[in-house]
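In response to the reviewer comment on reproducibility (Comment 2.3), we provide here a single inverse folding case reported in full, input and output, so that an independent group could reproduce the run without further information from us. The C-alpha cells appear first.
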C-alpha cells in the first residue's frame, strides 16, 4: 500500500547500533534511529503516533546528524526487513553524500560511507514514498533494489519545489518537532 497521507514525516531521535547488516552484508551503511525517546511530527493520520505506528516502506528525504550543518539526501527503510525476517520495526536511513564528496563511493558496493554516528542526534524528514518493503530472493537482488532506491532518492532530492525546500530548512534548523513550518 502506498502511504503518502502522513508525508512529510519528521522524526528526531538518536543514532543507535543496528544489526550490522547494512555495512557488512549489503555494503550500504545506515544511521538507525532509536525507538526510545523518538519524536514524531504530530500531523494528519499520525496525530497520536508511536514508533510502531510509522508506515512501512522505502522513502526518500533529508537528514542531518549531530551539529554537522551538512544536509544529506537519504533513502530510508521503515519496517521489518523481510529478507532478514526481523520481528522488530526499524527506521534505517542511508545518508547520501554529495556527488563531490570524498565519501561518495567508499563502501564495498560503491555507496556512501561516512563513518559511525552512534549516540548522535538525528533529524530526518521523509518527503516521498518510493516503494513497499519486499521479500527479495537473494542478496544480489536486495542490493540492486537498494542501489536503485538511492539513485531515486538522490534524483528526487534535487527537486526545487517549495515543499522540498521547506523540509531541507526544517532539517537544517534546531526547531522542535512540533514547531510549525
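Designed residues, in position order:
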Amino acid at each position: 500500500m502506498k502511504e503518502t497521507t502522513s508525508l512529510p514525516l519528521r522524526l528526531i531521535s538518536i543514532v543507535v547500533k543496528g544489526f550490522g547488516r547494512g555495512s557488512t552484508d549489503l555494503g550500504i551503511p545506515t544511521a538507525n534511529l532509536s525507538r526510545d525517546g523518538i519524536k514524531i511530527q504530530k500531523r494528519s493520520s499520525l496525530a497520536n503516533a508511536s514508533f510502531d505506528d510509522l508506515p512501512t516502506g522505502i522513502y526518500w528525504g533529508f537528514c542531518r546528524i549531530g551539529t554537522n550543518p551538512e544536509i544529506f539526501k537519504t533513502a530510508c527503510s521503515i519496517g521489518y526487513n523481510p529478507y532478514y525476517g526481523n520481528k522488530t520495526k526499524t527506521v534505517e536511513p542511508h545518508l547520501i553524500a554529495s556527488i563531490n564528496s570524498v565519501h561518495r563511493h567508499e563502501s564495498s558496493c560503491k555507496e556512501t560511507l561516512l563513518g559511525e554516528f552512534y549516540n548522535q542526534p538525528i533529524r530526518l524528514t521523509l518527503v516521498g514514498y518510493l516503494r513497499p518493503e519486499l521479500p527479495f530472493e537473494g542478496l544480489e537482488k536486495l542490493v540492486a533494489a537498494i542501489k536503485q532506491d538511492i539513485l531515486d532518492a538522490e534524483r528526487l532530492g534535487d527537486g526545487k519545489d517549495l515543499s522540498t525546500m521547506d523540509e531541507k530548512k526544517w532539517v537544517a534548523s534546531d526547531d522542535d518537532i512540533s514547531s510549525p513550518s
